[in-house]
Amino acid sequence: MLYLWIKALHIVAIVCWFAGLFYLPRLFVYHAMSDDEASKQRFQTMERKLYRGIMMPAMLASLALGIWLLVLSPSWLQQGWMHAKLTLVVLLVGYHHMCGAQVKRFARGENKRSHTFYRWFNEVPVVVLLLVVILVVVKPF
Fold first, then answer.
1. How far apart are CA 80 and CA 114, in angstroms?
2. C-alpha to C-alpha distance for 40 and 69, rounded to whole angstroms
3. pLDDT digits (tens, 9 = 90+) for 96-127
4. SS3 content of the chain, % helix, strand, coil (to 5)
5. Overall number of domains in the chain
6. pLDDT for 4-52, tens place per residue?
7. Distances from the Cα of 116 to the Cα of 51, 87, 102, 112, angstroms
8. Which of 128, 140, 134, 139 is closest to 62 using CA atoms?
9. Which sign does the torsion angle of CA 13, 103, 113, 86 carry?
10. What is the Cα 36 distance to its own chain's centre?
11. Which among 33, 18, 41, 44 is positioned nearest to 96, based on CA atoms?
12. What is the pLDDT of residue 120?
């Protein structure tokens, strides 16, 4: 029974984390397109609050609950699909921190990238989510 509660909370944490991973780069698109100071300040506030208040706690909860699930089911670590999934999770944590670095660059007024870059950057978590769901559900290897 405990296992199912941990799994349910893990899924909720992942949903919250991905909501932020989808929305923050979209804010970067709008921020990069903004010209007036009021808009730039508004986007800085939104980006900071989303990153610190939602994304960081959701990522930490996702990782902690995922590790707990692995402790309860260590045999998963001997399966190829789990190795692939964990590799994607590591890459996703890196992407998360790249987003955090970009939040800081925008706050300092040092953004050098166009809204087009952020539109493409925004697709990374979509691809990762698709691959992770396939790995977890289909377990192809």
1. 38
2. 41
3. 999 999 999 999 999 999 999 999 999 999 99
4. 85, 0, 15
5. 1
6. 999 999 999 999 999 999 999 999 999 999 999 999 999 999 999 999 9
7. 21, 27, 15, 12
8. 128
9. negative
10. 29
11. 18
12. 98
DSSP state of 36: S
Give CA–CA dist 60/110, Å, rounded: 28
Tokens of 12: 């909720």
Confidence of residue 140 (pLDDT cuts 50, 70, 90): very high
Closest by CA position to 86, among listed 122, 62, 56, 120: 62
> Token pair for residue 36?
């007036």
- Dihedrals φ, ψ of 120, to 5°? -75, -40
For residue 131, give its domain range: 2-138
Token code pair at residue 6:
């941990």
| The two structure tokens encoding residue 55 | 């994304």
Contact yes or no for 127/91 (Cβ under 8 A):
no
H/E segment holding residue 58: helix 56-72
111: closest CA among 43, 52, 54? Answer: 43
